[in-house]
Amino acid sequence: MRRTYKDVIWKEALPRMAADTAMVHLSALASLAAVVLWQSTGGGGVRTAQLMRELRGWYLHCFLPLSVVFPAVFFASGFYTRSRSYFTSYKWTVLARGITLATLIFLFAAFLVSRAEALPRSAIVVFIVLVNGMAVGARVIKSLISQPGGVSKARNVQVVSAGGGDGASPVLVVGGAGYIGSILCRKLLARGKTVRLLDSFVYGNEAVRELFGHPHLELCIGDCRNIQSVVSAMKGVDSVIHLAAVVGDPACEQDRHAALEINYAATRMMTEVAKGYGVKRFVFASSCSVYGETEEIVDERSATGPISVYAQTKVDSERALLKARTESFHPVILRLATVFGNSYRPRFDLVVNLLTAKALQNGIITIYNGDQWRPFIHVSDVAEGLICALDAPAALVSGEIFNLGDSRLNYTLTEVAGTIQKLAPGTRVEHVENPDRRNYRVCFDKIRRELGFECRVTLEEGVEDLRAALVTKKIGDYTDSLYHNQRFLKAAGRLTSKEEIDAQVMAAFALTLENHQNGLAPIHARL
Ligand SMILES: NC(=O)c1ccc[n+]([C@@H]2O[C@H](COP(=O)([O-])OP(=O)(O)OC[C@H]3O[C@@H](n4cnc5c(N)ncnc54)[C@H](O)[C@@H]3O)[C@@H](O)[C@H]2O)c1
Questions:
Q1: Which residue CA neighbors atom 7 of ligand 1 most closely?
Q2: CA angle 245, 249, 255 (to 5 degrees)
Q3: Which of 179, 211, 290, 318 has the most ligand 1 atoms within 8 A of CB, as the residue to mutate?
Q4: How many CB atoms are located within 10 Å of the residue 56 CB?
Q5: Can you give the pLDDT at residue 457?
Q6: Is 360 in the pocket of ligand 1 (CB under 6 A)?
Q7: Which helix (H) or strand (E) holds 334?
Q8: Per the confidence metrics, is the pTM higher than 0.70?
Q9: 208, 197 in Cβ contact below 8 A?
Q10: Predicted confidence band at 491 (pLDDT cuts at 50, 70, 90)?
Q11: N or C terminus: which one in the chain shows less Cβ crowding within 10 Å?
């Protein structure tokens, strides 16, 4: 599992790097010219000629640092690998941050080398304004005439390539560019399946970019709240694996409205479209967090007790899906344990991953309420479990709920810390109490008994793999908000439906009867 410079598509990146470097030089020249003009307004021709000589000297002096520092910092900031697929507001933040950082490094390096200013002070401000303006302007113009991946622009859905696969109809993976989906899609493709991926690339498309152009991948760039996108993506499909969501308690708290729309209303809408198109299998990624806080060992027959908006949207979606079951429509619910391990879209807002990164970087980890139980599962095993539910005979899985995990991977948070401590010796563990009382110890016998599913990756192996990726810098800065759903959504702004009609469709699907029937307040009233 990699996320390295190899992932850069050089054919596309090099011309963009060249264009940005030219833009930096142009800005330097223009800012110097502005200074000449300003200073020469009071002087005669001789003074201007002197200034021109002086400023030519300035330019030649900073030519090399400009050509090296800016491309290097832009590259390291992800300008050519990631920023293109970010949401707009976050993209501008990344750009401005990269440009400011490059300018500071350039000025500092030039000062260290020659003990002189790299540019006249009056030119620096003009330079920064110009570089920012040109970088933003060029990208705005480009985004108006093209789309990510160099594909032509359609209104809602772009099918980038059509595949043949094993000859069977494609598997639609909704949310396939995420932490779990990016591994699942690769596993499905490796097994000869044709994959149709529907994703709006909330966190960018880097995790699946190397798959673009794969003969068995059909890419639909679209929002699962948009009924046209869903209809186009669902056409000709036999089975669906639905992963798209606002994932995690903090991320859902950050944008409750989007959580209701994406996690619940869109699931209901997709269920109806799937049934309309004769989809047979619909595998849904739910979560063991539906069990809430309990001292018992819970299994699929235990009562749910969601204590967060995220868990509530999962409970309500499960209920809607199971109710939609017919003789020919087979929903399968998988309640995933807490996932850990490295992926093509690493996440460091998950407890094991975050603690591992902190142990390596800071040498100290903080455990909140260490005696609480959580079930864990490696991200690769999640993908295996999803495929297992996809391929199992309908009679075994139709309308069934399975906890997806392994009873051997129930750990207290203190035990998790102990495992990390063993693999990152010298780590200090600090214990703190906080109000997060999520505590659940889960029984995974049903999936083992009925589908023969067992996890293959242990906690130690997953932590070690992640540790190696961090130590060898295959994963960059783990604090980057790209790796933290809630932090990213905070920076990116609200995930509002793009069109009014989508919002109306979502509102219609959010008005649900199931909650009333079960004596609960309707979900929209609780958000
Ligand atoms: N990771 C875990 O620990 C865990 C645990 C239990 C359940 N799950 C469930 O597994 C699923 C996948 O989780 P993940 O960890 O891969 O999350 P993720 O945040 O990495 O991926 C979610 C994917 O969905 C896409 N998406 C979001 N909103 C969309 C929209 N409106 N339209 C189209 N695509 C959209 C995103 O772009 C992203 O690619 C989720 O349903 C989650 O609730 C995850």
A1: 287
A2: 65
A3: 179
A4: 12
A5: 98
A6: no
A7: strand 330-336
A8: yes
A9: yes
A10: confident
A11: C
